[in-house]
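haha ok so turns out i had the wrong file open the whole time. this is the CORRECT one, sorry everyone. sequence first:
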Amino acid sequence: MQRPSQRLRLTPRRGLGLLDALIGLALLAFGLLALVGFQTRLLAQTTDAQTRAVAMQFANELLSTALVDPVNLACYSVPAASGCTSAAARNSTDQWRERVAAGLPAPVSVRADLAGTQLTVVIDWTARSSAAASRLQVVTDVQ
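then structure:
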């Protein structure tokens, strides 16, 4: 008859430590892949936010120029409206439109509509990261 201590004696298993290490490495690899995916999405969203901020700066630039020069309000519409009497104001608007096209991801569409004393600036562009259409619309009342 065997003693109780001999029956409970476990034999060592070979390779169990190696299997634990492989499982740990697999979990680490999946974690690092998730971290890389998160970083990529974060970078894309940061780029989109920065592009939106640039578009807002461009829109505010045109609206501020129109607020300073309400006499030539018709000159700040895009496309050009009839009734513009100032070549300098029209030239300023054309240069602004070129800067917008150069400063945002293509294709860029710019529109500035004048309804009475209300100026609406609409800027459309395509986001670099997601290739989705983005739009910024800003309205002010020029008096």
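Residues 16-68 form the longest helix (53 residues).
again sry for the mixup
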